[in-house]
Predict the structure.
Amino acid sequence: MSGAGEGGDESAVSSTGGHAPAPSATDGHAPALPAIDGDESALLTRAGHDPSFTLTDGSERAPATEAEDELPYSEKAGDEPASAPNAENESALAAQAGDDPVPAHHRRIRSFVTRAGRTSPAQQRARDTLGDRYVVPYVDRPLDYSRLFGREAPVVLEIGFGMGAATAEIAEAHRDVDFLGIEVHSPGVGALLKLVGESELTNLRIVEHDAVEVIERMIAPTSLAGVLVWFPDPWHKARHNKRRLIQPAFVSMLAGKLKADGFIHLATDWEEYAVQMLDVLGNETGLLNRAEGFGSAENGLLTRPVTKFEKRGKRLGHGVWDLVFGRQVR
Ligand SMILES: C[S@@+](CC[C@H](N)C(=O)[O-])C[C@H]1O[C@@H](n2cnc3c(N)ncnc32)[C@H](O)[C@@H]1O
């Protein structure tokens, strides 16, 4: 399990909920990008370099494999997000169940299985030059967005950005919005950092940690303009359905993080998961469907680009379902 961010300057992490003024020094790591304050650069120093900043609890870490996934989101392991379990991952899960000293009823079921993955030299370079600045360490206190981004702007959270191409696209198209991307797949973080550098994006930060814990601990109530969950792992086998991210308790937590006019935008290419999503969001009293049934790729703030996993789903002949729900203040 990742530890809280002891060590780094966590000035962007609010303990009071109040907004502290944005500090003003620079750190000079990436001259191509506009300067970011010194507090923030200190805040961001741990992620990506500190071995204590682990991505998962380790017990679910599965070995890299060249085997194809057995699921529709299959691709060779390595440069792809860990999406759904293959045979090796399943045995890793089984081994974990046997070895884990934590009683089963106390273990949290995670929506991902991490693999070693392959980080390319270019992704590694991006991590080395931009990681300190753009990867936010996991901590157990709410983030202060105005300190983190150095301005007041709507904040949109994306869960599971994969290799980050769609994330970079929306961040570039909406420079007046600040984006916080959460992903556990290390090469994906490197890939998005590379795009951040190429497009000189300043309105994007990354947390490399389990989104459930990040949202629980680092996101203040009623603070988000929007939440994007595009093509989450479908975990299509009945015995794996419990790993799906979109479950009532998680959605209820998400709803509580939205501002009064905030939205949640989900998309999937797995029909049965789409139906589950509609049911779960439809039964969340803190949310109201903005469409009759399924919606469209537009969520009122931005239009969802075609994502990598959407392309894959289409190649496999799948449909695509979007859901856009707004916050309903009770
Ligand atoms: C199927 S991929 C979709 C990637 C991207 N959104 C797209 O459409 O191309 C799902 C991603 O969610 C990530 N993921 C799953 N559960 C997560 C969690 N609890 N926290 C952070 N990332 C998670 C996986 O690592 C994977 O990269």
Observations:
- Residues 73, 81-83, 111-112, 159-162, 182-185, 188, 210-212, 230-233, 245, 307-310 surround S-adenosylmethionine (CB under 6 Å).
- The two ends are 35 Å apart (CA to CA).
- Residues 223 and 231 are 24 Å apart (CA to CA).
- The chain has ten helices and seven strands.
